[in-house]
Please model this.
Amino acid sequence: MKKRALLSVSDKDGVVKFAKELRALNFELLSTGGTYKLLKENALEVTEVSEFTQSPELFEGRVKTLHPKIHGAILHKREDEKHVKEARQNDISSIDLLCVNLYPFKKTTILSDDFDEIVENIDIGGPAMIRSAAKNYKSVLVVCDLLDYKSVIEAIKEGKDDESFRLNLMIKAYEHTANYDSFIANYMNERFKGGFGEFKFIAGRKVMDTKYGENPHQKGALYEFDDFFSNNFKALKGEASFNNLTDINAALNLASAFDEAPCVAIIKHGNACGFALKESLLESYTEALKCDSVSAYGGVVAINGCLDEALALKINEIYVEVIIAANVAPEALKVFESKKRIKIFTQESPSLKRSFDKYDFKHIDGGFVYQNSDEVGENELKNAKCVSEKKASEKEFEDMKIALKIAAFTKSNNVVYVKNKALVAIGMGMTSRIDASKAAIAKAKDMGLDLRGCVLASEAFFPFRDSIDEAAKIGVKAIVQPGGSIRDDEVIRAANEAKIALYFTGIRHFLH
Model:
């Protein structure tokens, strides 16, 4: 029995081949606008929708498929005698396959700020047809992803386009329209309400399932915005777990914060336990490891450049669970061939990059909190106010830049000590800043590190002078912090007594 397919797509990749396959399967073709023109140019027998409905396109194409002969053809139940009779009485035929993808609203917002043009690219007929076909999925195949063309043709040929197959297409169709509408609503709120409207829609495409979540009894998966992981995350060895991915995120945030500089970050449980920015990546890794080689065991190493053979051999001296590198040399990969547990990922780019999402959110029980993403501004330290009698040297200033960025990416409360462009001590996630200071100094002592001449950064103000006094004992030369405590005068006085340069940025970087 001859069937009918309606094809109306904005993204026309593969649609001609798909249409030819449908014709070969004895489908009649309906189409609109540019899709109709393309199919005709390729010698396909196709009927224009306006001819099928006997109704012209109206209002510059705003109304063309919004017609009972289209929606009736899609929506009537084939197994319901009353529906079939009503369709016959109203001269409504059947549409058995719908192939639609939507006007490129998102692309238009990237290319243009003309609001009238943007509004014209809000698809009306497309989502209506997709939703209609999805609702009647038992009778209508709904195709909104060009990657499904091949499987749909194969299913029809093999008689496997059953209810289960159609159900999966239905789910995908509603995901497609939900994502489309979510983007429009978010865009309008961004444009007219500063990004914080009455509703916020968070939509992501699944990249992969993880073996489990944070713990084996939890299910987990990775979702992405804007194809970030699809384009910038390639597994060379092993499979990333849920916990790996959160640690990789922390490592990428830190290692990519220094542009193309040859830095290396070592992360354990979301926090830095090593960082260095030296003349080479090999030197950077060697120095980063010195900060806390105990915690680095089983950690994540982010390499802002190429993982070459020499660096691979050095890393292979201990067990690290994950390496994420901008790119990886083939001979470096061979170094780890016999190591079953290590996982290696790359972005296949000159240096590491992250998405730089404009907004950040966190789940809390019953909802989520939503905010602008935090960044250390390019001139944050440059514009900081020196509140002490002593000023920092150029070398100390360079170390403070590094310390400030590490502090911003580290769980509060934290203190970060940097010397010669390498992290030498860090205390994080403590309930008091003095405890963080003491923990960092104790760890550095265990590692045999000399802190004299280092700088100190804190992501929030020092509420008391005690952390400054601790810094003085180990020879800290310069400190950068936001300031803003009611005891700032006491803190400044402590810095002057110890001849420490003290800078207030006025910007806090809590990370909870």
About this structure: Residues 243 and 473 are 37 Å apart (CA to CA).
